[in-house]
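Bug: token stream looks shifted between consecutive jobs. Job 1:
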Amino acid sequence: LAPLQVEMRTLAMLPGLLRQLRAACTRLAAGARVLPSSVQETAGHVRHSVEGVQASLSRARSLHDLSDLVLAQSRETVMRAQLSIDELLEYVGQHAPLPWLVGPFAPALVEYPEDFPVEMAKWEGCITVG
């Protein structure tokens, strides 16, 4: 592909990717309301950072519209957001109660204690990791 075609495709994909990232951060911040205030703050900072990147990049009609500084700051912001999300996931993995993490499987875990046999047909089609 010619550099101009790559640029055009990149710019065409950018708004959708930024919308998806912003939506994910909004859901993350909303879900963090049940977590400690420090975790809520981190989630809020991530969302705010992503909104800033979206605002900076959304006005561009070509990559030449974006200064090297804006591109570098955007890249740095997204990298920091990724690290923060990794920290949030680690926190949730270490501190959240099991039923909160397993979601739709929680009723089966609560309903059937470990020593009670569960019909395998109930689990048909489920993917196991091991």
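Job 2, same session, no restart:
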Amino acid sequence: ETSSTTMGFALYELAQRVDVQERARREICEVLARHNGDFTYECMNELIYLNQVISETLRKHTIVPMLTRECLEDYPVPDHPGYEIKKGMFVVIPAVGIHYDEDYYPNPEEFNPDNFTPEKVAARDSVEGL
């Protein structure tokens, strides 16, 4: 069960970092107060920092270490003119390698929910269709 596993890792990381735990708790209390204590869908969407904690947990404790995808059309590899991924070929995407790449996540061994601020997420390259 991937959800129970992720929550276990999140609780472990929170137990190790009282500052992160307190920041998440403060956010939850503030958001619930704005919603008169009702935990609604709208309330959940306002828990920005808690979402960052979960995203960082999934980055650091990757549930799916690699993805496979079938190429839907011929794709010339940028900056490598002699290489082309042909339509129908399967490609392995190393999620763990990306999650621990210092170009994307400075100090990748460190648990840092601020890796997932809206600004940092927007600044990272993404590949459409993955």
